[in-house]
Specification:
51% of the residues lie in helices and 13% in strands. The two termini are 20 Å apart.
């Protein structure tokens, strides 16, 4: 299901969604159904690719949540848990791999760095498993760790969790790490639309965390940019749609 959703809201999905109905229309120009299918794809994908649309829909998950101000940061031994997002990656000729953070992952790392710098005694858990099924695929946890180090967080203060494949996995695996670390406070860093489910999953695993919402990477853009279709907005629509499905699944299984 995860792979199917990722494909649907990608270049591949876009090409398939328009390519197949277009071939149908060309093969049967008189088919009213073919033209309707093509128009439906145009409306759905066109709407989903406008940045303001997924942003507005995602507000359902954000009600009641607020940004963590520097003045509200807990004192004492704090563990900052930053949850993984997608990480595009490439393999070189010699087999070496290189992973990059997507917009959500980058914004989460920036927020984790801000919280770390504002804390008096903090450590970080960078969480996220392999970013693809291929053997040797890099992990999101390690990619975020590298970015945290680049931003000035000492590597010695970072623990990497790289076995998880879902938010539920992250909650269970990180809870085990926290049981050994025993921090006074746990700060959970993730995107705003993902925070409510993440908090529920961690509480279900026995971890009561303070939410630290990552800054929305599209928030600072001019209004005209929020209305222009983009692949980034299409990907965000996929994330929000997946969040609706995941929230229902987690609720049904008692994971929140």
């Amino acid at each position: 299901m995860e792979t199917l959703l990722n494909t649907a809201f990608s270049y591949s999905g876009l090409i398939l969604a328009f390519g197949m109905p277009t071939v149908w229309v060309c093969a049967r120009p008189s088919s009213l159904m073919a033209r309707r299918v093509l128009m439906t794809c145009f409306v759905l994908y066109g709407t989903a690719s406008i940045p303001i649309v997924p942003y507005a829909v995602s507000r359902v998950f954000v009600a009641g949540l607020s940004e963590l101000a520097s003045a509200d940061l807990p004192q004492g031994h704090t563990t900052i848990v930053v949850l993984g997002s997608g990480s595009p990656w490439y393999r070189g000729r010699d087999g070496t791999t290189l992973a990059f953070l997507d917009l959500a992952g980058a914004s989460r790392v920036l927020e984790a760095t801000r919280v770390f710098r504002s804390s008096t005694d903090a450590t970080v858990i960078s969480s996220g498993g392999a970013v693809g099924p291929e053997p040797g695929a890099p992990t999101t946890g390690r990619a975020m760790r590298d970015a945290l180090v680049q931003l000035g967080v000492p590597a010695s203060r970072i623990t990497v969790e790289e076995r998880s494949q879902s938010t539920r996995d992250e909650a269970v695996l990180v809870a085990a790490i926290l049981g050994e670390v025993k921090p006074q406070t746990v700060v959970l860093v993730t995107s705003d639309y993902h925070m409510r489910r993440a908090l529920g999953a961690f509480r279900s695993a026995g971890v009561n965390a303070v939410p630290a919402i990552a800054y929305d990477p599209l928030k600072g853009r001019a209004w005209v940019q929020r209305l222009l279709p983009s692949m980034q907005a299409l990907a965000l629509s996929g994330s929000v749609f997946r969040e609706f499905l995941a929230s229902a699944l987690y609720g049904a299984r008692g994971w929140t």
